[in-house]
Amino acid sequence: MPTDYSNLEEQLGKLGSEEDVQTLGHLEHVGKRQADLTPEEEASKEAFLKRSRQEAFIPAIEKGWIPIDRSLLGVRDQFYPEEWEFRVKPATVEAIKNWSAINEENLAITNSVFNEIVKSCVSIMGPNGKIGWGKMNSWDRFWFINTVREYTFEKGENILSYTEECPECGGDVTYELTSDKLVYEFPDPEVVEKHWNREDRTWYINPKEYDVNAPMVKLYVPTLEKDEAILQWAYAQAQAGKQINEPFLRFLPWLLEKAPKNGELFDNMVKDAKQQFNSWDAEMFSFMDEVLRNITVNPSEKLRQVCPNCGEEVIASVRFPNGVKSIFSVPNKHRKFGSK
Questions:
Q1: Which of these, 51, 87, 55, 89, lies nearest to 72 by C-alpha position?
Q2: How many angstroms separate the CA atoms of 137 and 80, rounded?
Q3: Pure H helices in the chain
């Protein structure tokens, strides 16, 4: 019986594609998994990983780490502890080569290489030393990748732009993909102030305050390490022929405090989360569904721009006219070979 990963992937989000124009859409099953990589794709990935591992031993000052002004994160800054410091460095030539070699229709390899860009080009420091890249909030991955890209091509060697009609005046508006133009949807400020604890990165929700007879609930922000662990766990469940509960999968990143590398320990944490989820009656589930909608930071897959004709701020969907590979592609100066 073939395994269908579409429901699983829809819960976790993806870089999707639509004919010749690609967007940051919801996951659609693309038919290949990590185990199905071609020898060329596997070699490309291993080359990227090898470079990342080698760079891990180079002193930070030699790698050109650039401190990030946390105010650039805007409202999203409050979802990290105050003492954390973020740094980025330009992607290496080797990393760019390996990025350009990926099969962007393969969800597993694209997702993996995106994480490798973050792992090798983003550094998080806390008061007691380096913090793992996987602690980054899920919704910030694309912002940091764009920031890395901007430092990699700081002279404007790679400008991703496209033109659309202004909905206000009908004139042409050119949208450029930069980190500061990405649009997000945020929780209401009063919800954050009342329920969010910045230091332990936890939402404390007391259902009784909202006339729901249930005990206090702790919710934890989704992170890259949890996303990766949940994806691998869900694949294993599907391979074993076990049914995956979609609503539970949606809540799982919020119910797990962390993602230990020990597989057995992680499985036990998932079981505990499932037990908690199953304890909710219909009223509690309805309440928690409302909670999740109201505490999520949602990357809306949109860009904002000011129309040069009428001066109004307008918004359009993120697009990659030349494919996802164009994020780190270097324009060629040589004469074109052939028509493809």
A1: 87
A2: 8
A3: 6-12, 39-55, 93-100, 107-121, 141-152, 189-195, 224-239, 246-255, 263-278, 282-295
**pLDDT tens per residue, range 115-159:** 888 988 999 999 999 999 999 999 999 899 889 988 888 776 667
Tell me the DSSP string of 61-99: GGTT-EE--GGGGGGGGGGS-TT-EEEE-PPPHHHHHHH
Give burial (CB, 10 Å; 0-12/13-18/19+) of 35. exposed
- Cα dihedral across residues 119, 14, 233, 255: positive or negative: positive
Cα 321 from Cα 312, distance rounded (Å)? 24
Measured between alpha carbons, how far is 338 from 336 in angstroms, rounded to an integer? 6
Beta-carbon contacts of 32 under 8 Å, excluding residues fewer than 6 positions away, are 103, 105, 106, 107, 108, 109
> How many C-beta atoms surround the C-beta of residue 87 within 10 A?
16
CA–CA separation, 94 and 97 (whole Å): 5
- C-alpha closest to that of 121 among 108, 106, 136: 136
Question: Quick one: tokens of 230?
Answer: 């949940």
Model's pTM, two decimal places? 0.76
- Interatomic CA distance for residues 218 and 225, integer angstroms: 19
Do 318 and 301 touch, CB atoms closer than 8 A? yes
